[in-house]
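Box 3.1 A note on notation
Throughout this textbook, protein chains are presented in two layers. The first layer is the amino acid sequence; the second is a token string describing backbone geometry. Keep the layers aligned when reading.
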Amino acid sequence: MDNDFFIDYMDMDEYQRQLVDRKIDKSMVVTGSAGSGKSVIALHKAKQVAQITDDFAIVVFTKTLKRYFEDGIKQLGLKNVYHYNGWSKRNVKYLIVDEIQDFSQNEIEEMKRCAEICFFFGDTAQSIMSFKEGGTQDVETTAYNMHVSPLPLYFNYRLTIENAEVAIKVFDDNLGTKYKRNGEKPKVLNFPSFDAQLDEIIRIVQNRALTNVGILMPFNTKETASRSHIRDSKLSVEYVHDYLLNKGVPNEFKYNANQSTTMDLDFHSTNIKIMTWFCAKGLQFKDVFIPGCYIDEEGKRKSLYVAITRGSERLYILHSNNLSNFFDQVSPECWDSNEEVEDI
């Protein structure tokens, strides 16, 4: 995990500091794109609350994000972080919730009843749980129902301008965000087979001595990938985990199977992390690889957007002569391909 998981107050921009400086006697809803610092603000508010009481809870949507948050808050001497389904829903004075856009109206109302003061953080563009029963509630509606104005974060510090340009085209929106820095062009690499894609990922990681890597997949297990419309068991966390182990490449992973979770993640280690597009919500890696990028099912567009926006430095998209049509609007000048990059 990067050492900048928690950013010091003096390293924040004006808008971030204004939110940190707000008194903690009223509820607030903070909005911002992927990489704008919402989770950092959430941690600062938790730190402020913890200085006066331990009557608070930090709730996140996924088990993976809970593990990531746990590692981050240990640096601050904090506690009380929960995965939503593992939270007892006991009454607290303060409730801090990240990824609020993935909860339903009923769930949000339940959380509000459990706390005197709520600090909610989210990004409607990253809402990928529309299939859940009851749907989801966008961040702006949540703020309206709480009779507060949503508080925006304007700058994106995670994405380079080059990576953001691809993400914007995939999502087909300008996202209203300002990006601060340049970086390498994303790589779109074509190989004859999925295994060849994985071999190239291994080569790049080893040649460039990469130590903060996420490999993001559309499906959890071989079985669920086989039952998808693509019918390819290889497009799964489980397959990639096994393949890398057989190649002698240490890795850590998280996937769900039969309503149970298999997770082996240590965000302080330098091992490759493998998880689904969905489970990567809220996380950050310096280098992100998205192999098997064939899926063009419209319901997966937001999930792919989430995956693309996890990388703070380099983005690699791999396919085998069948790149997803989600990238049709991306100009060839926006990325490098095999033909242009002989040796990375």
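The first helix runs from residue 14 to 21. The two ends are 24 Å apart (CA to CA).
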